[in-house]
Amino acid sequence: MKENFEKLREQLGNATFENYVGLQDGYSEMAYQMVAHVLTLGYATMLAGLLYFVLTINWVAPKYRMSSILSGVVMVSAFLLLYVQSVNWETAFEFNTEEGRYFLAEGNRADLFNNGYRYLNWLIDVPMLLFQILFVITLTKSSMSSVRNQFWFSGAGMILTGYVGQYYEVTDLTNFAIWGAISTVFFFHILWLMRKVINEGKEGIPADAASTLDSIWWLFLIAWMLYPGAYLMPYMGGIGLDGAFFNETGVVARQITYTIADVASKVIYGVLLTVVAQKLSAAEGFDYVKNNS
Ligand code: RET
Predict the structure, then answer these.
(1) Helix residue ranges per DSSP H, 203-231
(2) From the DSSP assignment, how many helices (H) and strands (E) are in the chain?
(3) What's the whole-model pTM score?
(4) Residue 108 pLDDT class (50, 70, 90 cuts)
(5) Beta-strand (E) ranges in the chain?
(6) Which of 35, 47, 174, 190 is the most buried (most CB within 10 A)?
(7) What are the φ/ψ torsions at residue 247 (nearest 5 degrees)?
(8) Inter-axis angle of helices 17-24 and 248-262, nearest 10
Protein backbone atom coordinates (compact mmCIF):
# COMPACT_ATOMS: atom_id res chain seq x y z
CA MET A 1 0.00 0.00 0.00
CA LYS A 2 2.95 2.30 0.69
CA GLU A 3 3.76 2.87 -3.03
CA ASN A 4 0.23 3.95 -3.87
CA PHE A 5 -0.55 5.75 -0.69
CA GLU A 6 -0.53 9.34 -2.01
CA LYS A 7 -2.97 8.44 -4.75
CA LEU A 8 -5.25 6.51 -2.39
CA ARG A 9 -5.16 9.38 0.03
CA GLU A 10 -6.31 11.81 -2.64
CA GLN A 11 -9.21 9.51 -3.41
CA LEU A 12 -10.23 8.57 0.12
CA GLY A 13 -9.08 11.35 2.46
CA ASN A 14 -10.32 10.82 6.02
CA ALA A 15 -12.03 7.51 5.24
CA THR A 16 -11.24 4.68 7.69
CA PHE A 17 -8.76 1.93 6.87
CA GLU A 18 -11.45 -0.54 5.80
CA ASN A 19 -11.89 1.61 2.67
CA TYR A 20 -8.16 1.85 1.94
CA VAL A 21 -7.92 -1.92 2.07
CA GLY A 22 -11.09 -2.21 -0.04
CA LEU A 23 -9.77 0.06 -2.78
CA GLN A 24 -6.19 -1.17 -2.90
CA ASP A 25 -6.28 -4.93 -2.22
CA GLY A 26 -9.95 -5.81 -1.93
CA TYR A 27 -11.32 -8.54 0.32
CA SER A 28 -11.24 -12.29 -0.11
CA GLU A 29 -14.56 -14.12 0.07
CA MET A 30 -13.66 -15.39 3.52
CA ALA A 31 -12.76 -12.00 4.97
CA TYR A 32 -15.80 -10.29 3.45
CA GLN A 33 -18.24 -12.93 4.67
CA MET A 34 -16.70 -13.16 8.13
CA VAL A 35 -17.37 -9.46 8.65
CA ALA A 36 -20.90 -9.76 7.23
CA HIS A 37 -21.63 -12.73 9.49
CA VAL A 38 -20.17 -11.30 12.65
CA LEU A 39 -22.16 -8.07 12.17
CA THR A 40 -25.33 -10.13 11.74
CA LEU A 41 -24.50 -12.18 14.83
CA GLY A 42 -24.18 -8.88 16.70
CA TYR A 43 -27.64 -7.54 15.91
CA ALA A 44 -29.31 -10.94 16.28
CA THR A 45 -27.85 -11.22 19.79
CA MET A 46 -29.26 -7.81 20.72
CA LEU A 47 -32.76 -8.94 19.71
CA ALA A 48 -32.37 -12.16 21.70
CA GLY A 49 -31.13 -10.11 24.67
CA LEU A 50 -34.19 -7.86 24.43
CA LEU A 51 -36.44 -10.90 24.75
CA TYR A 52 -34.52 -12.06 27.82
CA PHE A 53 -34.69 -8.70 29.61
CA VAL A 54 -38.41 -8.28 28.91
CA LEU A 55 -39.26 -11.79 30.03
CA THR A 56 -37.22 -11.71 33.26
CA ILE A 57 -38.26 -8.27 34.47
CA ASN A 58 -40.71 -9.61 37.08
CA TRP A 59 -38.18 -12.04 38.50
CA VAL A 60 -36.67 -9.27 40.59
CA ALA A 61 -38.18 -6.98 43.24
CA PRO A 62 -39.76 -3.80 41.76
CA LYS A 63 -36.96 -1.47 42.90
CA TYR A 64 -34.45 -3.35 40.70
CA ARG A 65 -36.56 -3.36 37.53
CA MET A 66 -35.07 -0.17 36.14
CA SER A 67 -31.93 -2.21 35.44
CA SER A 68 -33.88 -4.49 33.08
CA ILE A 69 -35.56 -1.49 31.46
CA LEU A 70 -32.18 0.14 30.76
CA SER A 71 -30.87 -3.12 29.30
CA GLY A 72 -33.95 -3.11 27.04
CA VAL A 73 -33.16 0.45 25.89
CA VAL A 74 -29.56 -0.58 25.16
CA MET A 75 -30.74 -3.65 23.19
CA VAL A 76 -33.07 -1.62 20.95
CA SER A 77 -30.52 1.07 20.16
CA ALA A 78 -27.72 -1.47 19.59
CA PHE A 79 -29.93 -3.63 17.41
CA LEU A 80 -30.74 -0.72 15.11
CA LEU A 81 -27.18 0.55 14.91
CA LEU A 82 -25.66 -2.86 14.25
CA TYR A 83 -28.22 -3.47 11.56
CA VAL A 84 -27.29 -0.18 9.87
CA GLN A 85 -23.59 -1.02 10.28
CA SER A 86 -24.19 -4.32 8.53
CA VAL A 87 -26.05 -2.67 5.61
CA ASN A 88 -23.18 -0.18 5.41
CA TRP A 89 -20.69 -3.05 4.96
CA GLU A 90 -22.79 -4.55 2.18
CA THR A 91 -23.23 -1.31 0.23
CA ALA A 92 -19.59 -0.26 0.61
CA PHE A 93 -18.05 -3.23 -1.23
CA GLU A 94 -19.07 -5.28 -4.24
CA PHE A 95 -17.85 -8.49 -5.76
CA ASN A 96 -15.58 -8.20 -8.78
CA THR A 97 -15.84 -11.33 -10.92
CA GLU A 98 -12.58 -10.73 -12.77
CA GLU A 99 -10.50 -10.49 -9.63
CA GLY A 100 -12.60 -12.84 -7.53
CA ARG A 101 -12.50 -10.34 -4.67
CA TYR A 102 -14.69 -7.63 -3.15
CA PHE A 103 -13.62 -4.05 -3.92
CA LEU A 104 -14.90 -0.64 -2.87
CA ALA A 105 -18.22 -0.20 -4.68
CA GLU A 106 -18.65 2.58 -7.22
CA GLY A 107 -21.74 4.43 -8.43
CA ASN A 108 -24.30 6.58 -6.71
CA ARG A 109 -25.60 3.94 -4.30
CA ALA A 110 -22.14 3.25 -2.96
CA ASP A 111 -21.27 4.46 0.51
CA LEU A 112 -17.87 4.40 2.19
CA PHE A 113 -17.58 2.18 5.24
CA ASN A 114 -17.41 3.94 8.58
CA ASN A 115 -17.49 2.84 12.21
CA GLY A 116 -18.94 6.18 13.28
CA TYR A 117 -22.42 4.71 13.77
CA ARG A 118 -21.01 2.68 16.58
CA TYR A 119 -19.51 5.64 18.34
CA LEU A 120 -22.78 7.56 18.25
CA ASN A 121 -24.64 4.51 19.52
CA TRP A 122 -22.21 4.36 22.46
CA LEU A 123 -23.23 7.90 23.29
CA ILE A 124 -26.60 6.43 24.27
CA ASP A 125 -25.45 3.06 25.55
CA VAL A 126 -22.41 3.99 27.64
CA PRO A 127 -24.31 6.32 30.03
CA MET A 128 -27.17 3.79 30.21
CA LEU A 129 -24.82 0.91 31.07
CA LEU A 130 -22.98 2.94 33.69
CA PHE A 131 -26.22 4.23 35.13
CA GLN A 132 -27.79 0.80 35.23
CA ILE A 133 -25.61 -0.60 38.01
CA LEU A 134 -26.70 2.27 40.28
CA PHE A 135 -30.21 0.79 40.34
CA VAL A 136 -28.93 -2.55 41.62
CA ILE A 137 -26.34 -1.58 44.21
CA THR A 138 -26.64 0.71 47.23
CA LEU A 139 -23.87 3.28 47.58
CA THR A 140 -22.60 3.48 51.15
CA LYS A 141 -20.37 6.57 50.93
CA SER A 142 -20.62 8.38 47.58
CA SER A 143 -23.63 10.42 46.54
CA MET A 144 -25.73 8.87 43.79
CA SER A 145 -26.19 12.12 41.86
CA SER A 146 -22.48 12.92 41.91
CA VAL A 147 -21.52 9.44 40.63
CA ARG A 148 -24.23 9.62 37.98
CA ASN A 149 -23.04 13.03 36.74
CA GLN A 150 -19.42 11.89 36.61
CA PHE A 151 -20.46 8.80 34.62
CA TRP A 152 -22.38 10.90 32.10
CA PHE A 153 -19.64 13.48 31.80
CA SER A 154 -16.71 11.11 31.33
CA GLY A 155 -18.74 8.67 29.23
CA ALA A 156 -19.69 11.37 26.74
CA GLY A 157 -16.19 12.91 26.84
CA MET A 158 -14.55 9.55 26.12
CA ILE A 159 -16.74 8.81 23.12
CA LEU A 160 -16.83 12.22 21.48
CA THR A 161 -13.04 12.60 21.58
CA GLY A 162 -12.63 9.02 20.27
CA TYR A 163 -15.15 9.75 17.50
CA VAL A 164 -13.07 12.69 16.30
CA GLY A 165 -9.85 10.66 16.59
CA GLN A 166 -11.05 7.76 14.45
CA TYR A 167 -11.33 9.99 11.38
CA TYR A 168 -7.55 10.39 11.48
CA GLU A 169 -6.66 6.71 11.73
CA VAL A 170 -5.01 6.61 8.30
CA THR A 171 -4.09 10.15 7.39
CA ASP A 172 -2.86 11.82 10.56
CA LEU A 173 -1.38 9.60 13.24
CA THR A 174 -0.54 12.53 15.52
CA ASN A 175 -4.15 13.62 15.75
CA PHE A 176 -5.25 10.00 16.02
CA ALA A 177 -2.95 9.52 19.02
CA ILE A 178 -3.79 12.83 20.72
CA TRP A 179 -7.58 12.38 20.55
CA GLY A 180 -7.17 8.75 21.58
CA ALA A 181 -5.07 9.79 24.59
CA ILE A 182 -7.62 12.39 25.74
CA SER A 183 -10.34 9.76 25.40
CA THR A 184 -8.24 7.37 27.51
CA VAL A 185 -8.05 9.88 30.37
CA PHE A 186 -11.87 9.88 30.54
CA PHE A 187 -11.80 6.08 30.29
CA PHE A 188 -9.49 5.74 33.31
CA HIS A 189 -11.77 8.01 35.29
CA ILE A 190 -14.72 5.72 34.46
CA LEU A 191 -12.76 2.61 35.48
CA TRP A 192 -11.74 4.17 38.78
CA LEU A 193 -15.31 5.25 39.52
CA MET A 194 -16.78 1.87 38.61
CA ARG A 195 -14.30 0.10 40.91
CA LYS A 196 -15.38 2.43 43.72
CA VAL A 197 -19.09 1.84 43.04
CA ILE A 198 -18.61 -1.94 43.06
CA ASN A 199 -16.56 -1.84 46.29
CA GLU A 200 -19.28 0.13 48.03
CA GLY A 201 -22.00 -2.09 46.57
CA LYS A 202 -20.39 -5.21 48.04
CA GLU A 203 -20.71 -3.94 51.60
CA GLY A 204 -23.39 -5.64 53.66
CA ILE A 205 -24.87 -7.87 50.92
CA PRO A 206 -24.94 -11.70 50.83
CA ALA A 207 -21.63 -13.29 49.84
CA ASP A 208 -22.94 -14.88 46.63
CA ALA A 209 -24.31 -11.53 45.40
CA ALA A 210 -20.96 -9.89 46.27
CA SER A 211 -19.08 -12.51 44.28
CA THR A 212 -21.30 -11.91 41.23
CA LEU A 213 -20.48 -8.20 41.58
CA ASP A 214 -16.80 -9.13 41.42
CA SER A 215 -17.43 -11.06 38.21
CA ILE A 216 -19.16 -7.96 36.83
CA TRP A 217 -16.03 -5.94 37.57
CA TRP A 218 -13.78 -8.32 35.62
CA LEU A 219 -16.24 -8.56 32.74
CA PHE A 220 -16.52 -4.77 32.69
CA LEU A 221 -12.77 -4.25 32.72
CA ILE A 222 -11.96 -6.76 29.98
CA ALA A 223 -14.93 -5.97 27.72
CA TRP A 224 -14.44 -2.21 27.83
CA MET A 225 -10.69 -2.52 27.14
CA LEU A 226 -11.52 -4.22 23.84
CA TYR A 227 -12.90 -0.97 22.39
CA PRO A 228 -9.60 0.95 22.51
CA GLY A 229 -8.03 -2.25 21.11
CA ALA A 230 -10.38 -2.04 18.12
CA TYR A 231 -9.55 1.67 17.71
CA LEU A 232 -5.86 0.78 17.45
CA MET A 233 -6.43 -2.34 15.34
CA PRO A 234 -4.79 -1.17 12.06
CA TYR A 235 -1.54 -0.70 14.02
CA MET A 236 -1.68 -3.79 16.25
CA GLY A 237 0.71 -5.56 13.88
CA GLY A 238 3.20 -2.67 13.64
CA ILE A 239 2.96 1.07 13.04
CA GLY A 240 2.74 2.02 9.36
CA LEU A 241 0.93 0.97 6.22
CA ASP A 242 2.81 -2.30 5.86
CA GLY A 243 2.08 -3.53 9.40
CA ALA A 244 0.67 -7.05 9.74
CA PHE A 245 -2.81 -5.69 10.53
CA PHE A 246 -3.18 -2.90 7.99
CA ASN A 247 -5.06 -5.29 5.70
CA GLU A 248 -8.10 -7.57 5.63
CA THR A 249 -6.88 -9.46 8.71
CA GLY A 250 -7.06 -6.25 10.71
CA VAL A 251 -10.49 -5.40 9.27
CA VAL A 252 -11.92 -8.80 10.27
CA ALA A 253 -10.19 -8.66 13.67
CA ARG A 254 -11.68 -5.24 14.36
CA GLN A 255 -15.28 -6.30 13.70
CA ILE A 256 -14.88 -9.53 15.69
CA THR A 257 -13.40 -7.54 18.59
CA TYR A 258 -16.31 -5.06 18.49
CA THR A 259 -18.86 -7.87 18.45
CA ILE A 260 -17.31 -9.73 21.40
CA ALA A 261 -17.09 -6.42 23.29
CA ASP A 262 -20.71 -5.54 22.48
CA VAL A 263 -22.12 -8.88 23.55
CA ALA A 264 -20.06 -8.86 26.77
CA SER A 265 -20.54 -5.22 27.78
CA LYS A 266 -24.24 -5.01 26.98
CA VAL A 267 -25.84 -8.47 27.09
CA ILE A 268 -23.73 -10.51 29.55
CA TYR A 269 -23.32 -7.46 31.82
CA GLY A 270 -27.12 -6.96 31.87
CA VAL A 271 -27.70 -10.65 32.58
CA LEU A 272 -25.22 -10.60 35.48
CA LEU A 273 -26.86 -7.49 36.93
CA THR A 274 -30.21 -9.30 36.75
CA VAL A 275 -28.60 -12.21 38.62
CA VAL A 276 -27.35 -9.87 41.37
CA ALA A 277 -30.80 -8.26 41.58
CA GLN A 278 -32.40 -11.71 41.88
CA LYS A 279 -30.08 -12.67 44.73
CA LEU A 280 -30.73 -9.40 46.53
CA SER A 281 -34.49 -9.74 45.96
CA ALA A 282 -34.44 -13.25 47.42
CA ALA A 283 -32.44 -12.05 50.44
CA GLU A 284 -35.04 -9.34 51.00
CA GLY A 285 -37.89 -11.87 50.95
CA PHE A 286 -39.11 -11.33 47.35
CA ASP A 287 -39.74 -14.75 45.87
CA TYR A 288 -40.97 -14.71 42.26
CA VAL A 289 -41.66 -18.43 42.11
CA LYS A 290 -43.72 -18.45 45.32
CA ASN A 291 -45.59 -15.30 44.31
CA ASN A 292 -46.62 -16.87 41.02
CA SER A 293 -47.38 -20.44 41.91
C1 RET B 1 -12.21 4.94 22.26
C2 RET B 1 -11.13 5.83 21.63
C3 RET B 1 -9.76 5.41 21.96
C4 RET B 1 -9.52 5.42 23.44
C5 RET B 1 -10.62 4.79 24.22
C6 RET B 1 -11.85 4.52 23.68
C7 RET B 1 -12.81 3.79 24.54
C8 RET B 1 -14.00 3.32 24.22
C9 RET B 1 -14.88 2.56 25.07
C10 RET B 1 -16.11 2.29 24.60
C11 RET B 1 -17.10 1.54 25.24
C12 RET B 1 -18.25 1.31 24.62
C13 RET B 1 -19.32 0.53 25.13
C14 RET B 1 -20.39 0.44 24.34
C15 RET B 1 -21.52 -0.31 24.67
O16 RET B 1 -22.54 -0.14 24.14
C17 RET B 1 -13.48 5.78 22.22
C18 RET B 1 -12.37 3.72 21.35
C19 RET B 1 -10.31 4.48 25.67
C20 RET B 1 -14.41 2.09 26.39
C21 RET B 1 -19.26 -0.13 26.44
Answers:
(1) 207-231
(2) 11, 2
(3) 0.95
(4) low
(5) 93-96, 101-104
(6) 35
(7) -165, -165
(8) 140
